[in-house]
Design a protein that fits this description.
Oligomer: single chain
Order of helices and strands: HHHEEEHEHEHEHHHHHEEH
Largest sheet: 8 strands, mixed
Number of helices: 12
CATH superfamily: Alpha/Beta hydrolase fold, catalytic domain
Strand content: 15-25%
Shape: globular
Helix content: 25-40%
Strand order of the largest sheet: 1-2-4-3-5-6-7-8
CATH architecture: 3-Layer(aba) Sandwich
CATH class: Alpha Beta
Radius of gyration: 18 Å
């Protein structure tokens, strides 16, 4: 698989990152979304222990391998990178599941307890359910925080319950503290976006469970670090911010137990995920890491604002 070639303005990591989720790109992907919507099934997946996760599923009319797509933090099953890749995978003959993590994709009402990034077991359980339901090989593809989840599912799931075919992670969070520092140092547009989006999503949780959550908890924070600390310690049961961030890190030996082939793609111009964090990961013969010079954060855009490189890379890995 050849490396991503950035053309013109897409050699700028910020442009690649910002345009990847822009209204203009959504317009260009509207035909792909409409085609997926023609055969889509809205599903609620039981993840055991009275936990439920919503998903959008595109089934093939015949037996086929299955790919589950995992969005990033504050994304959802309608995120543009999932639409683009989902359409490519469906056209290639795969069952495609676009899973919403807890409290994402307007699913705040499904579970009383709040989402946090350490809730890995429910994603593993959702994968087990889908594997049993589809009776076909299951692969995972995740973006940003979703890439972190995908790699942890591969490393943490018991082989007796879940047999993964391939795992692919684009720009995954490796060291959460490092990512938080990068967000604090990068352009203000990212901090403003995440704070505004997070507040709006948390408001939906407050409306769903007004006796448990209060928006004032969020409003007490003036930045991402304070907001993360407040919600992790007040609602998620963590003693401090450090223990929470360490809880979903994949640095050190966390990936030592990978059960199947995993592919990670990082970019040198990612404004959110430091590519050097790859050196913090345990080296594993099944973990293949590609460092791209360009691509931004989950961008890899071409002049028509599509991300064909992501689609081609994913299919190449799945077919390898």
């Amino acid at each position: 698989m050849s490396a991503y070639v950035a053309q013109g303005v897409f050699r700028n990591g910020h442009i690649n990152s910002v345009l990847s989720g822009s209204p203009l790109r959504r317009l260009t992907l509207k035909p792909a979304q409409q085609q997926l919507n023609q055969q889509v099934e809205h599903a609620v997946i039981p993840a055991r222990h009275n936990i439920y996760l919503s998903a959008l599923i595109n089934k093939q009319p015949h037996h086929a391998p299955t790919v589950m797509l995992l969005h990033g933090w504050l994304g959802c099953a309608h995120s543009l990178y999932l639409i683009s890749l989902g359409k490519a995978l469906y056209d290639a003959g795969y069952h495609v599941i676009r899973l919403n993590l807890r409290d994402h994709g307007d699913s705040q009402h499904l579970n009383q307890k709040l989402f946090h990034s350490c809730r890995i077991q429910e994603v593993i359980n959702a994968c087990i359910h889908c594997q049993e339901n589809f009776q076909s090989p299951l692969s995972l593809v995740g973006f940003s925080l979703g890439g972190n989840f995908a790699l942890r599912v591969n490393a943490y799931a018991e082989r007796s319950q879940l047999e993964l075919h391939k795992t692919i992670a684009f720009c995954p969070v490796i060291d959460p503290e490092s990512t938080l520092l990068a967000l604090e140092k990068t352009l203000p547009i990212y901090k403003h976006y995440f704070m505004r989006r997070w507040r709006n999503e948390f408001r939906k949780k407050v409306l769903a469970f007004p006796n448990i959550y209060s928006l004032s908890t969020f409003d007490q924070a003036t930045n991402l670090r304070e907001a993360t600390d407040n919600l992790a310690t007040q609602y998620a049961g963590f003693s401090n911010l450090e223990s929470y961030l360490n809880g979903y890190s994949i640095a050190g030996t966390r990936l030592k137990t990978l059960q199947s082939e995993a592919y990670t793609v990082l970019t040198k111009d990612d404004p959110i995920i430091p590519w050097q964090d790859k050196n913090k990961c345990h080296s594993h013969p099944k973990h293949h890491v590609l460092i791209s010079r360009y691509g931004g954060h989950c961008g890899f855009l071409d002049p028509d604002l599509n991300s064909q490189w992501i689609n081609h890379y994913t299919l190449a890995c799945l077919n390898n």
